[in-house]
Amino acid sequence: MAIKVYYDDVTFRLRSSKSLKELFSNIINHYNFEVGSISFVFVDDERILDINIEFLNHRYFTDIITFDYKDNITI
Questions:
Q1: Between 43 and which of 31, 47, 56, 72 could a Cys-Cys bridge form, CB atoms 3.0 to 4.6 Å apart?
Q2: Prediction pTM value
């Protein structure tokens, strides 16, 4: 299982992406989920709005967007 963290034109960084990866790895293992990979992509407001419009047909901001990897969506 791969857990990756990406930053797309944002000015911040997590103090420890390792902690985020460990947290989700523990949750996945605790619930015996079967996971291929998880990617966290941190983006600015403009990009999250573009993604909402393009993929979800929303014209408003959201804090989080999730995609099922099986859909083969590339952002």
A1: 47
A2: 0.75
